[in-house]
Amino acid sequence: MIDFDEELSYYKPSLEIEAIEDAIVKSDLTDMTDIMMELIKERKE
Amino acid sequence: MDYANRCRRIANGYYNQGLEKAKIRDLSGAAECLKKSLHFHKYQTEARNLLGLIYYEMGETAESLVQWIISLNLQPADNRAEEYIRRIQGKLGRLDAESQNIRKYNQSLALAKAGNDDLAILQLNRVVEINPHFVKAHLVLAILYMRRGDYTKAGKSLYKVLQIDKSHPKALWYMSIAKAHTGRAEVERKKLNNAFSHRQMQDDDIILPPTYKETTGWITIINIMVGLALGAAVIWFLVMPAMERQLNHLHNEEMTKVLEQVNQKSLALSALEEEKAAMEAERNDAMTNLQAMEENEQGVVLQYQRLVQILKAYEAQDMNTVAAVYSDMDTSLITDQQSAAVVEEIRNYMETEGFQVLANLGNAARDGGNQEEALSYYQKSLNIKGDNPQVIYDMALIYQAREERDQANELFGQVIMNFPNTDLASLAKEARGY
């Protein structure tokens, strides 16, 4: 049986247009290539 | 092959998967693939742009803008994201409307979490009316409908979600619950069974052809009657409601016009009433001014009469009358130069000697037992020359005799404070009981 209150709690507020700038600044753009390059660099050192 | 190339190839693979899923409207699945693609290679611009498009299609305008702006930053030239952003910003007021809609959704979600379902449903309905592709709003709406047991309406919302995103896992789950409660699941199961349960035709199965039957006269009449009945039913159920709707529409339009006219008349009436009130106020002001002018005029004449009276008394050396009349006079109303010069002379006399004449008149009244008149003369004398301790002291004595202690004490106090080291001050102190 579905628990509606619990189900509702999973829903988060949507990102507002005014908060776009903040979201862009906070977004983590590290990808696998970056991680690999970092590891190779560490190994060389 | 180096690691960077491998990552790029994996990213391309995920992008292709995402694209395939997006093409069959599996937007949630596509979004997952595209996110994975970007985890492997953030410069996979096509994947990021498509992810933005998917967010936009699902009503998440801000999220889509975030992806396109990042995409433009990572690849400023030859990027479709520029066109997407330009289109959104191009339409006047569109971004504002989107912003307000998202804010409304967030408010509705807060209301729903607080248990205020009615208001949340009302607001979410407005949200999805403005943006029918807002998947999250539809889902929350479906939950609220299900919570209040309205599984049919929940099903309608979920149907809209599944039209946008065919494999949305939450929507599919909710839909299964809604179908189970409305009996729809059973109907679909039977349909599915029927669709695949036809047995193979055997060689000895016989197909009976439809037979032709000769129609008799009675049957023809019955058919005509049935036809007429059907025609009447069509008119009753299809044509009449349309006509009724049209009539209602015309009636509503007419009502609106009449109401507008009534509103305009009311506004005109209000304006006229305001105008009337303003005019009445102006009239009252004018009346008041006129009355004041008349009074002023009478006052001026009276002052000139007093001036004549003073001059006559002056000639007769009746200084008591001069002082008494002057003390009642308003010299500011005498404005012509000649009379003003005369008044000035009288004022000089009153300030040097006349004030004492008034004090003497006060003394005479006091001695005659007329305290009220004595106080009046003393006050007039003080009005002309205020620093006369004897008059103040005499007034205080009268108040003391009348047992008006507050006023007596105040006047004694004036003598003590303003004229210290005088005999009168000592007497005043004694009178106050110091």
The second-level CATH architecture of the domain at 336-432 in chain B is: Alpha Horseshoe
Q: Write the H/E string of chain B, N to C.
A: HHHHHHHHHHHHHHHHHH
Q: Count the helices of chain A. How many?
A: 3
What structural class is derived from the secondary structure elements of chain B?
mainly alpha
On the 0 to 100 scale, the average pLDDT of chain A is: 89
As a percent range, the share of helical residues of chain A equals 55-70%
Instruction: State which percent range the strand residues of chain A make up.
Output: under 5%
Biggest sheet statistics of chain B: none
**Main sheet of chain A?**
none
Most extensive interface between two protein chains, with residue counts: A-B, 26 and 39 residues
**Count of beta strands of chain B:** 0
Radius of gyration of chain B: 52 Å
Poorly predicted sequence stretches spanning 5 or more consecutive residues of chain B: none
What is the string of SSEs of chain A from the N terminus onward? HHH
Q: What shape does the CA trace of chain A take? A: elongated
Count of β-strands of chain A: 0
Helical run tally of chain B = 18
Q: Supply the CATH superfamily name of the domain at 336-432 in chain B.
A: Tetratricopeptide repeat domain
Give the distance, in angstroms, between the N- and C-terminal Cα atoms of chain A.
Answer: 57 Å
Low-confidence stretches of chain A at least 5 residues in length (pLDDT < 50)? none
How do the strands and helices of this protein lay out in sequence?
The complex is a heterodimer of chains A (45) and B (434).
Chain A: H1 4-9, H2 20-26, H3 32-44
Chain B: H1 3-23, H2 27-40, H3 45-57, H4 61-74, H5 80-90, H6 94-113, H7 117-130, H8 135-147, H9 151-164, H10 169-182, H11 184-196, H12 217-315, H13 319-327, H14 337-367, H15 371-384, H16 389-401, H17 405-418, H18 423-432
Helix pairs in contact in B: 1-2, 1-3, 2-3, 3-4, 4-5, 6-7, 7-8, 8-9, 8-10, 9-10, 12-13, 13-14, 14-15, 15-16, 16-17, 17-18
